[in-house]
Each structure stands twice: as structure tokens, then as C-alpha cells.
């Protein structure tokens, strides 16, 4: 429920806000076992989980509304825009345009992690990323760096990046977690199994929402053990990473299972292949309507950040969605 109905139900004790609102929920499924109970009847031992699901989750100074992370791939082989921004000057111009369109963050990546992609040498990745990060940060743009490599993280942070976005959840490079802890920067831990060139073989799940939540909880625990502050962590369920069509849809429909970790959700559905599978649209650039639909559904389920290619369209969609949800 949402809007006035949600507010009234929360005030009456019949519902709890979802990640601080504007949506609310009146029923909860208790796992394991699967019993569904009204929120007012949730047993005391489950109350801490209920409170984590209900609580607002500020992160990286982006509290208050779903934020937009604009995608800037400075790679030759990304699935949707590979090669478009290989020239640094062009990439900088594109990053400034994303910020002007309303991106709260510009996420700069120098290595494609699409299914089947081969790893880029870290020195090559740094050469692609650092000049762009430095120029955007100098213009006051909030920048995150999309990388699995500690050396690239360090170089990008030195150049002015504020956030690390790691598709391996700090598992790829043994030095990454200690680096993020030492720098004290916000970090996105994404769920993925295997490597980009092998993950398609690892997409078997019994209960995808429960398994992704459990595997992310282990990565969060590992990051905290390395000294990363919990309040610096956001999580990303990794839509399309080691997940087929049914797993992607089930996961998006049950994002509440991840909210029990009490951490902000970053959701990346923009132009992804599952949208093409559903719509029959083969060209990634023609998947904007499906991307907006999936992104708004994720916001209704409590997403804190949407990672998107089409910033202006997403900003407009969010503005209308928020006006309706009040």
C-alpha cells in the first residue's frame, strides 16, 4: 500500500513503512517456515528484523528520495554502450551531461562485467578511468568508481571519486576490503557468483531472494571484519549477474527479503537482457520503457538508488511517481 492509505495504516499500527516509506506493508513472512502474519502479530524475536525493514536508510549523503546513479562506461565492450565513451574528452562531456540531467552520482567504469566479458588489465582500466574521474570531480560532480581492483579504487579515490561500486562485493581483490576500510568511503557490495565469463553457469537457485540475501550477508560480514563501517555499505542484488529470467523477476518481486539486512538497496535494471526477453526488444537502447517500469517497481519495494543509463527519463518518471505516492 502507499500514500494516505499507507500513512493511516502505519498510524493505526496495522502496517509498517517499507524502508522509511512511502510504501508500507501489513503482512510479513517469517523465515524459515514461511508463516505469514500481520505485522502487529510479529513475534518479539522477529521485531529487530521488522524494524530493519521499516527503517529509513541514509547512505553517502543521498537520503530523502530514490537517488539516480548515472552509468558512464569508458570501455570498448560494455553490453549497451561499449566504445561510445572511449575518448576521455567525450567521456567527460557525457559525464557532465548525466549530472546536468539530474544524476546524483556518476558511476565511472573501465572494465566490462557483462556476461561472458574478459577481465581488463588493471593498468588499462586505470588509464581509462582516472582522467575522467579527475575531470568530473573537479567540476563538482559526485563520482563513484565501478571496479573490482584495489589499485583502481585507490587511484580513482585519489582523483576525487567518493564511492566504490564493486560487482564482486570486495571478493575479487584481496586488498580491496582493507583499502575501502582505510579510506572510509561508502561502498556498494553487489551479489554475483563466479566471474563475468563463468557466472552464467552458476544461476541455479532454490529460493533466489533468500539465497542472495544470505550470500550478501556473508559479504557484508566480511567487509565489516576488514574494518568497513556498516553505515558505509549499500547492497546490490546483482540483477542479471548469475541469474536467469525467472530468478531476476522473482528477486525483483521480493526485494523485501534483502531489506532485512538493514542496508540501502542499489538496483541496476537499466537496458538489461531480461527486459529484452520479456518485451522481445533485442536492442538494449530500445529498452527504456521496460527499464523505467522495472526501476519504479524496485522503488516501490524500497530501493534507495537506481543505476541507470537514461538519467533524464528516469528523473521525470521518479518525479511523477513521487507525486502520486504522496
Please summarize what this structure is:
It contains 12 helices and 12 strands. It has helices at residues 3-11, 47-54, 88-101, 122-138, 150-158, 176-183, 208-225, 245-253, 256-259, 273-279, 288-300, 311-325; strands spanning 16-17, 24-25, 27-30, 35-38, 67-73, 105-109, 143-146, 163-166, 187-190, 233-236, 266-267, 305-308. Strand 8, helix 6 and strand 9 form a beta-alpha-beta unit.
Q: What are the main properties of this structure?
A:
two-stranded antiparallel ribbon, 12 strands, 40% helix, 2 domains, alpha/beta, 12 helices, TIM Barrel, 326 residues, eight-stranded parallel β-sheet
What does the overall shape look like? globular
Strand residue content: 5-15%
What is the strand tally? Answer: 12
Strand order of the largest sheet: 10-9-8-7-6-5-12-11
CATH architecture classification of the largest domain: Alpha-Beta Barrel
Q: Unreliable segments (pLDDT under 50, ≥5 consecutive)? A: none
Major sheet summary line: 8 strands, parallel
Kindly report the average pLDDT value. Answer: 91
Integer-rounded radius of gyration: 19 Å
- The CATH class designation of the largest domain is Alpha Beta
- Report the span from N to C terminus: 12 Å
Give the % helix.
40-55%
Order of helices and strands: HEEEEHEHEHEHEHEHEHHEHHEH
If you consult CATH, what is the topology of the largest domain? TIM Barrel
Number of domains: 2
Helix/strand class: alpha/beta
Number of helices: 12
Amino acid at each position: 500500500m502507499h500514500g494516505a492509505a499507507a500513512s493511516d495504516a502505519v498510524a493505526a499500527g496495522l502496517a509498517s513503512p517499507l524502508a522509511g516509506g512511502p510504501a508500507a506493508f501489513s503482512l510479513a513472512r517469517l523465515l524459515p517456515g514461511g508463516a505469514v502474519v500481520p505485522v502487529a502479530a510479529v513475534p518479539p524475536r522477529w521485531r529487530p528484523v521488522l524494524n530493519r525493514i521499516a527503517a529509513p536508510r541514509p547512505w553517502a549523503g543521498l537520503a530523502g528520495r530514490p537517488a539516480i546513479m548515472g552509468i558512464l562506461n569508458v570501455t570498448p565492450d560494455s553490453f549497451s554502450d561499449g566504445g561510445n565513451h572511449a575518448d576521455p574528452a567525450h567521456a567527460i562531456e557525457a559525464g557532465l551531461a548525466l549530472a546536468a540531467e539530474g544524476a546524483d552520482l556518476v558511476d565511472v567504469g573501465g572494465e566490462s562485467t557483462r556476461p561472458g566479458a574478459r577481465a581488463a588489465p588493471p593498468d588499462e582500466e586505470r588509464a581509462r578511468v582516472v582522467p575522467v574521474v579527475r575531470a568530473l570531480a573537479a567540476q563538482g560532480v559526485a563520482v563513484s568508481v565501478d571496479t573490482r581492483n584495489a589499485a583502481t579504487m585507490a587511484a580513482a579515490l585519489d582523483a576525487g571519486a567518493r564511492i566504490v561500486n564493486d560487482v564482486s562485493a570486495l571478493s575479487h581483490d584481496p586488498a580491496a576490503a582493507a583499502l575501502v576500510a582505510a579510506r572510509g568511503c561508502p561502498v556498494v557490495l553487489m551479489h554475483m557468483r563466479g566471474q563475468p565469463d563463468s557466472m552464467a553457469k552458476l544461476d541455479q537457485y532454490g529460493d533466489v531472494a533468500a539465497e542472495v540475501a544470505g550470500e550478501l550477508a556473508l559479504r557484508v560480514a566480511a567487509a565489516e571484519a576488514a574494518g568497513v563501517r556498516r553505515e558505509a555499505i549499500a547492497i546490490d542484488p546483482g540483477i542479471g549477474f548469475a541469474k536467469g529470467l525467472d530468478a531476476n523477476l522473482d528477486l525483483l518481486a521480493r526485494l523485501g527479503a534483502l531489506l532485512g539486512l538493514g542496508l540501502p538497496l542499489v538496483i541496476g535494471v537499466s537496458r538489461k537482457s531480461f527486459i529484452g526477453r520479456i518485451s522481445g526488444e533485442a536492442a538494449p537502447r530500445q529498452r527504456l520503457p521496460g527499464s523505467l517500469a522495472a526501476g519504479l517497481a524496485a522503488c516501490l519495494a524500497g530501493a534507495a538508488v537506481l543505476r541507470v543509463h537514461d538519467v533524464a527519463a528516469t528523473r521525470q518518471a521518479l518525479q511523477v511517481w513521487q507525486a502520486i505516492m504522496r
